[in-house]
Amino acid sequence: MMKSEEVMRILENAIRIGKGVIRYGSVASYIPELAKADKNKLGICLYTIDGNQFETGNTEDRFTIQSISKVMALCLALETFGAEFVFDYVGVEPSGEAFNSLVELDNRSNRPFNPMINSGAITVASLLVNHYSIEDMQKYMQDVCEDPEIAVDEAVFQSEMATCARNKAIAYLLKSKEIIDTDVEDSVTFYTKMCSMSVNARDLAMFGLLLANDGVQLSTGKRLISSQTVRMVQTIMLTCGMYDGSGEFALRTGIPTKSGVGGGLLSVSKKKMGIGIYGPSLDKKGNCIAGCELLGYISEALHLHIFDTREWKVEE
Amino acid sequence: MMKSEEVMRILENAIRIGKGVIRYGSVASYIPELAKADKNKLGICLYTIDGNQFETGNTEDRFTIQSISKVMALCLALETFGAEFVFDYVGVEPSGEAFNSLVELDNRSNRPFNPMINSGAITVASLLVNHYSIEDMQKYMQDVCEDPEIAVDEAVFQSEMATCARNKAIAYLLKSKEIIDTDVEDSVTFYTKMCSMSVNARDLAMFGLLLANDGVQLSTGKRLISSQTVRMVQTIMLTCGMYDGSGEFALRTGIPTKSGVGGGLLSVSKKKMGIGIYGPSLDKKGNCIAGCELLGYISEALHLHIFDTREWKVEE
Amino acid sequence: MMKSEEVMRILENAIRIGKGVIRYGSVASYIPELAKADKNKLGICLYTIDGNQFETGNTEDRFTIQSISKVMALCLALETFGAEFVFDYVGVEPSGEAFNSLVELDNRSNRPFNPMINSGAITVASLLVNHYSIEDMQKYMQDVCEDPEIAVDEAVFQSEMATCARNKAIAYLLKSKEIIDTDVEDSVTFYTKMCSMSVNARDLAMFGLLLANDGVQLSTGKRLISSQTVRMVQTIMLTCGMYDGSGEFALRTGIPTKSGVGGGLLSVSKKKMGIGIYGPSLDKKGNCIAGCELLGYISEALHLHIFDTREWKVEE
Amino acid sequence: MMKSEEVMRILENAIRIGKGVIRYGSVASYIPELAKADKNKLGICLYTIDGNQFETGNTEDRFTIQSISKVMALCLALETFGAEFVFDYVGVEPSGEAFNSLVELDNRSNRPFNPMINSGAITVASLLVNHYSIEDMQKYMQDVCEDPEIAVDEAVFQSEMATCARNKAIAYLLKSKEIIDTDVEDSVTFYTKMCSMSVNARDLAMFGLLLANDGVQLSTGKRLISSQTVRMVQTIMLTCGMYDGSGEFALRTGIPTKSGVGGGLLSVSKKKMGIGIYGPSLDKKGNCIAGCELLGYISEALHLHIFDTREWKVEE
After folding, report:
1. Contact, A102 vs A173, CB < 8 A?
2. Per residue in C51-78, is it b (16+ CB within 10 Å) or e — as a string?
3. Which parts of the sequence bind substrate (chains A, B, C, D) (predicted)?
4. Which residues of D touch B165 (CB under 8 A)?
């Protein structure tokens, strides 16, 4: 059994461990607006299933959600269209390729490998754009994160649109293969806007808690997402959430996690907690370098590895 | 709470469901000796962590373990050399490629993607061959499966050696890249012999139980495998165990599983049970077609999906 | 020594041979407007360096020049910017890939393999679009083909623009790699317009004669293209002109040739003749099936293989 | 018209130009025995079709023929089995890949792309090994080079056999695809021995002259190779002879050429001359760096580009 002070002590250690590796990473540079981030920022927030919150560091700093929005978009698509329909357009296999790869799409498969890489997420966005406005998507993100402040960061959005040639290449390739049938420009705009939503570490922890609690909002007892969707989304996060570093990350931490190049990390520990992390210094695969390091420590200290057989308890 | 009769009823349903798809698969044909198998065979055995055994169908039929031996070999290598050493030679990323792919090795990486594909397993075998005889390996498999009858099926072994040009190609490629430094012929022979070990569904269930019980033998309370190795092995089975169908299988069943072209399936449900299945009719990716189908049903019926939040209990 | 009647007899044989294989091909179907072509059309025109013209079949039928325009565009780019500049943006290696491949661009090289595949030709178009209007390009084609009637076929142009998602994917990929720095839409429009120019077999034969005569217009003695450009263009036609069938075609005919999916073939026999062929029934690689077949015969009959050591002479 | 003194002056210039770039290359290092070569050596020999010999530098130094033997092996195979049979096993397309690539074989085609890369040449060797001993092959090379001294360099042969894991990987892959049906070890040994034949620049020039003279031995008037084979071999040399640098080399020199990592270059100028070069300093693609440079100069100075329209004549 663990007391609050013990958890806080572990969090403080985690932050120290994370800070120790910040200098080995660097902020995203391919989008000019993201390059302005302060690489020394680091914050972590835990919302546990028994109602506690633990946090330390820069948990209120806002940053763009980027690829973590792929998880929300997938949830919304699965709830709207059903798994069978969605997975007809996008697979669920890890690709062993980088996030922005085109090769795997053109050469090795007839549909994107999975919804956590750009080609898959743009496909999901093209499904959503038929049914939802970007305001609907924003509202959905506000709801699952319980934060009405979530909104498009216009500066980042404009910066990304000015440098999204590769995503347009992916989208036109999808179009040419008849995987997306909506307007390419509309789909890329929707995708880029959802990536430009501004969140903080608490928002991610809250969304993580929702998934950890099987899709039921802890505060209200209201089911927001079906059990089946929650199970599928966690599985995909575990196998594909960290791009071509997914396998190693799963081995080490055993925590379903999704990263964004804005510096965010969303982690879920089933029936235990949601975790949100912010740290814009990235490793070579585009994942928050401090967060990956400290999650390894936290997984061991709090017994969060999915194949850990030890008891877990946080008590007042 | 579930009673024994309920579990047996579920197993009977499972067998019925499995039998319904046998005709859509076919036995392995690329190894002449394997082509002789009776595709209508099907058996399943469950060993639960509270000491029960449930089984139905052809659970005593012997077949060659094939790729499932990759799991035992990985366990032995991790316990002998440590994770850091082993994962210096072989990665842990799903590759999105078929089991016998060479391309991913030559083009996309400097080491095999993971130990569940042939290139990775041959690399593991080349580490083992320096320290162990094939008799040692046989003894290890007998121990973890609690079956002293496990032995090389000579007919299958000879048949495989006569048709192993592709594995030799892989091994020589590994040699040329200095990933293996032992004799190529020795490594391929060791690998082929360990794949030719003859087991039954009960053996696989018993080994599954060992992993489900965190590496501790249930009957004796003796630890055979370390917790860390057990966690890593289950993670790799989940992300890479079913070749390029791993992601979809994980999504659907959420049960760490490894298949062999001999028709075997090894499944682990943490703190719940080990499952062994035999059914030589294979799907296009080389996995037991009936077993994959019935595991989907069992996962739902017994709440075995790793991200399932429901209680599980089997009672007398 | 060969007399005119002999040449005409050979041409008649060639047409018969070509017609014999028309049924094994089919007209281009991916562009709706091209699908309307009559697959039984076949025509061939020879302009020899000693001033003779031989022709038979549908040599006056107009069709869109398609990929053959890549040769004119390359000539114009080389003459305008010089070889060093142009080949900094696009390579000269055969790729072994199909005409519309993206993989080779993203995975195997930092620039398009050569100017005869779409990625290379779009790159050349992006260089030209900075200096020339499409009217300039049209004028250039009229000049080198000595046909003032050459103009954009608006129906084909519109049809292609409506189905050019893959070319846009290629162009945006080039943009993302900073290989093209002009506006993507402008470059694709220029490229598509130059492909939509309407020509006949005589036009192609006339342009072939210009190349066969080292870039000097036979009728006026005026040099239109430099010797160096002519040599380079013929080399690239020989090694890369028939997509992933270039090697086999070169082996068999030894005649630098470029095909277009509109059904055209442009062939050059140094110091001997230019050849233009029209036949919209295409083989699987997108080359005029009758033309490829009959060029094999003509090459042998008229001693046109580039490594043929026999004398050649057409006399009155 | 050019006099002998003029040719000699051009050759001296060529050597000077070649020597200027030697320092940018390095000797082959992957075969220990080859690493012993003196990188400053350079020699060139021309045998013209009118019976003259011009040479300068190290034209009597012996070195192993390496990949240039692929040309002789192809000639022998074509003469023995016919083109149709041979090209059923190996293609004639440039691959855009390095000489020792496996990927193109496993991923992009069902047979080796062409006989000038290792996979293709090992396939040709496997055809020959059924009909010829290595002594027969040696005799063939002695005949076409008119040098009875050609023999296996045992030190190089042993050195290569000790480091041929990649070639064995290729051969076993070919075996697994049923492209070769002979014993793998026999085929690799035959291939390695033919690569280990010791020649000098004069030998290569003499073989080049034979090809330049349409397969007829100049001294005796005896036809050694058929016209058809000579045409095909030159075409393949032009399109595939310099590995993934073939296209650029063809553009620049227009001379069918084959390189070997022993430092040799074999060039053919139809109806003009054969050229042999020795210079063990190699560029990054494995081609003699000085030879490639000086051939560019010689091609221009002597009008040897295959698409050059200028007259050529060497007179006493």
Report:
1. yes
2. eeebbbbbbebbbbbbbbbbbbbbbbbb
3. 67, 118, 160, 167, 191, 243, 261
4. 172-173, 175-176, 184
Which chains have 3 or more CB–CB distances shorter than 8 Å to chain A? Answer: B, C
Catalytic residue at B70?
A: yes
Express as a percent the part of chain A with pLDDT over 70: 93
pLDDT tens digit sequence for A74-112: 999 999 999 999 999 999 998 766 666 666 666 666 789
A165 touches chain C (CB under 8 A): yes
Closest of C248, C238, C300 to residue C17, by C-alpha: C300
Q: Specify whether the CB–CB gap between C266 and C207 falls below 8 A.
A: yes
* SS3 of residue C284 by DSSP: coil
**Residue D314: strand, helix, or coil:** strand
Note whether D15 and D57 are within 8 A (CB). Answer: yes
Q: Taking a contact as any Cβ pair under 8 Å apart, which residues of chain A between 83 and 112 contact chain C?
A: 101-103, 106-107
Neighbours of B84 (CB within 10 A): 8
In three-state secondary structure terms, C86 is helix
Over residues D240-275, the pLDDT tens digits come to: 999 888 999 999 999 999 999 999 999 999 999 999
Phi, psi angles (nearest 5°) of residue C191:
-60, -45
Among residues C152, C146, C259, the alpha carbon closest in space to that of C207 is found at C146
- A43 to each of A144, A253, A265, A282, how far by Cα in Å? 20, 19, 10, 14
Q: Which residues of D touch B171 (CB under 8 A)?
A: 169
Calpha distance C248→B33 (Å, rounded): 41
C-alpha separations of B22 from B18, B66, B275, B297 in Å: 7, 20, 19, 15
DSSP C214: T
Q: Rounded distance, CA D179 to CA D172, Å? A: 10
pTM exceeds 0.90, yes or no: yes
Is D251's Cβ below 8 Å from some Cβ in B?
A: no
